[in-house]
Design a protein that fits this description.
Layout (H helix, E strand, L loop, with lengths): L3 E5 L4 H12 L4 E5 L11 H6 L7 E4 L2 E4 L1 H10 L9 H16 L1 H14 L5 H22 L12 H7 L16 H11 L15 E3 L1
Parallel strand pairs: 1-2
Antiparallel strand pairs: 1-3, 2-5, 3-4
Helix pairs in contact: 1-3, 1-7, 4-5, 4-7, 5-6, 6-8
């Protein structure tokens, strides 16, 4: 039995990140479903007691709780032979992409997708601003992927796992996905990795993964 317990929700790309890592690395863990739509102050006692920000996902390793999806990816990759680099410059590049994701794709695309798919009363000016930001972020990523198969050192890393998470749901944003063929090709390459699954197939209940 693994010491890892992961709390997440199937509608969240941030929760998909560590779940995908576990699948790609064949890491056993216990998954606990937690409803992301419940206000943070009303979430379960387990989440309130383990997540200092009240957010998902939360990873518990032998009693120690960790939060923030990209931080969790760093922790997991440091304990895995996969998706990790020994060269410090490559590790630095991975960190740069993780910070970029949290400030860009992780805000623009994720919020646009959520408000478009799950909220019927969002003001058009808010959606228009998110669309503009998302297009700029995706254009930047498209340019990067024109000359490389993956984001760092031509091999998959947690940078790819992090940034791809919401992009498999790009159709939910209403954007013209045909504008970014290099991103599509990159997502296809990630989907060919052993153990990959689409975020639509995230677990919707609590279960054990051996």
């Amino acid at each position: 039995m693994s010491n890892y317990t992961l709390f997440g929700d199937y509608r969240s790309g941030n929760c998909y990140k560590p779940v995908l890592f576990m699948a790609l690395s064949s890491t056993p863990y216990a998954y606990r479903h937690e409803d992301v739509t419940v206000p943070r102050t009303e979430r379960s006692d387990e989440i309130q007691g383990s997540s200092r920000f009240g957010q998902l996902p939360v990873l518990i390793d032998d009693g120690t709780a960790m939060c923030q999806s990209n931080s969790i990816l760093c922790f997991l990759s440091n304990r895995s032979v996969l998706f990790n680099f020994s060269d410090y410059l490559h590790r630095q590049q991975v960190m740069e992409w993780l910070f970029w994701e949290s400030c860009n794709i992780g805000k623009s695309v994720s919020n646009l997708r959520w408000l478009t798919k799950f909220s019927a009363n969002t003001a058009e000016d808010i959606l228009a601003d998110l669309r503009d930001r998302a297009v700029k972020d995706l254009d930047r990523l498209e340019q990067e992927l024109t000359s490389k198969p993956f984001l760092v050192n031509d091999t998959p890393s947690i940078a790819d796992i992090s940034i791809c998470a919401y992009l498999y749901w790009l159709k939910d944003t209403g954007l013209d996905t045909g504008r970014w063929p290099q991103i599509k090709a990159w997502l296809d390459r990630i989907s060919e990795l052993p153990g990959w699954f689409h975020p639509d197939d995230m677990p919707r209940d609590s279960r054990e993964f051996a």
